[in-house]
Amino acid sequence: MLTDGINIIDGFIINSGINFDVTVYKNFNSREVVLKCIEEIKNFFAIENWQFNQTINLSDIELTLAMVEGVASVQKVEVVNKCGGGYARNSYDIKGATKHKIIYPSLDPSIFEIKFPDKDIKGRVV
What we know:
With about 130 residues, the protein is α/β, with parallel strands linked by helices. Helices cover about 20% and strands about 30% of the residues.
């Protein structure tokens, strides 16, 4: 039967964190470079830039980090799931959802979110 009614359902929030390793050129302060990298990732993951069922392309994150002044190379970018406590209860298998450096969301409406960027984005110089 056809109607003009619509059903609105809640989407699932997948709280995530980012861990990354970079190398820094000798004439740059490594602490300042890491702080700039964290700021760039915060901007990349600003929730107003994201849509439901949008994928995370790890190459885009690597490129964002590589464009930061002072970064010589990006060694590692890892997305981890954060759940429970102050985060959403939804646990998600990030590794299982990753194919060719792209992290796919679940089939249900879902969105990736970094809830506490100051705590959930961690970088280091190697």
